[in-house]
Amino acid sequence: MDKLLSIKEIVPDMQDWSCKVIVQEKQQVTQSLSTPTKKQKFIFVDAEGSKVEGIIFNHDIARVGPILQVYKKYRIANAVVRPIHPKYQTAELTIQWVLTSKTVIEEDADDEDIMPVKFNCTQFTDLAQYMDHKDKSVGMYVVYYTYIMNFGLEQLLQERFPFTDVLGIVIEAQDSRIINKNFKESVVQKFVLVNEQSQTVMLSMWDDFIKNEGQQILSDIHNYPVIICRRLKVSNYNGVALSTWFDSAILVDPPVQEARELKNWAMRNTNLLAAIIDEKSYIKYNPNMSVKADQKITLISNVRPSQKNIWVKARFSFQHIFQKYWYMSCKKCCRGTAAADGVIFMCNTCKEKHPAQPRCRFDIDLCDHTGAITASVFGEQAEKLLTFTAFEIMDHFKQNIELPLEAVHNELESKWFLVHIKPVQTQMADAKQRYTIIYYSEVLDTNVVQSPTQCKSDTLLIDLQADTATTNTSGSAPVKETKPASKARQCLTEKLELLADESNSSSHSATESSKKKAKLI
């Protein structure tokens, strides 16, 4: 091991070599679903900045894995050198060292403590371009997701994107919780990241990441640890959110220049970071993270359940949808419950005891000149649109008094909205596809939407009682024009007609007040 070679000088099948490297990444142990093979990957970097992939298999993981720690330097000799399969290669990684219990590995003491590595960090405001792409992650890979359940994970990586990374300060950690994911029990814990622009994003760590990097972060969280996250999944939770997956890497306080500069900024701005924690603005939707000046808009007729990140420009209409406008929920997780208002109960979803409280929720038809779909709006956004709080709505319901919404409906007739929606994954009883409104804002410049001459209001505000309208064309006989009625509304219409038939055949004493609606059960 006297003569040291650089990573570039070590070629496949070479023997009797040694190299001095730094462990840049130490990934989690993974297992292919189609084979019993287990593996753990590393990324090594030398003084020139060249990189190579290290890999350990099966029983050697327990023997060799603990020796190699991130950011430490080692002299490695006589590992098996082989090329990475061409379809798994990147511009940085083309060669793989297979480490076994026979490989010579010696820790090297060196005064130099900065890794000769440059990271291509993505700004928080640019993360939305990766949102909910099963074929794209912040970091690199194009993956054919549908193969995950059928083949080993190595067979998924068809092509790799150039590296792009996320750099942030961890300012808070939420409690971990157990959830069922893909018919398997998993543990998830959310961490709050902030950058120098005081922008925040939530990072969800799963399973082994919590045991390893998560515990390391928690033990030093009061000192604002800086992390570099690689190959993360981006979702649309609260605008933009990050999540680990099998090939992610979390580097905690890495010895690189940009991380140390950010750490220094954090230490000089502790009051600002404390204020962000107190305000907890990161739990709310942040449109600045997800709405772009040139936001791509999807016509409603082109909306598909397979889309995960959908923006539409539409009018709102719900005056003919017979609904309750609220439900009783868990105060923490907002899941529905049969508990009474204010009663503390054990929630079956979040597995914690919390009081029950009413939450606003109702369905809206989103309409443009191409069609209509039904979406549900929840919480504060629903209250803002309805102009009533959940407690006021519940009070009206319990007194059997109809909500006075005439002014709301009249205002909505002339308004357009930019709406961020996502498909509901749970199949509803009537087999109709539902959507959830994540965010909406009024569009003040109507020129950017359909002009009134291009989009007639009578095709947007759908009559629940009739799906067609009569129009005259150049003096000819009246012609029936189809209106873009949503399927969910049509289903609701059928249910209302059935309720009316049942009501007429029942007791004649059911007319207590012409000004009151029958209570929903």
TrEMBL record:
GO terms for molecular function: DNA binding. Residues 164-252 form the Replication protein A OB domain. The keyword DNA-binding applies. It comes from the Eukaryota. InterPro entries: NA-bd_OB-fold, Rep_factor-A_C, REPA_OB_2. Residues 502-512 have a biased composition (Low complexity). Residues 323-443 form the Replication factor A C-terminal domain. Residues 499-521 are annotated as: Disordered. Pfam families: Rep_fac-A_C, REPA_OB_2. Keywords: DNA-binding. This is Replication protein A 70 kDa DNA-binding subunit B-like. The lineage of its organism: Eukaryota, Viridiplantae, Streptophyta, Embryophyta, Tracheophyta. The gene is LOC113737646.
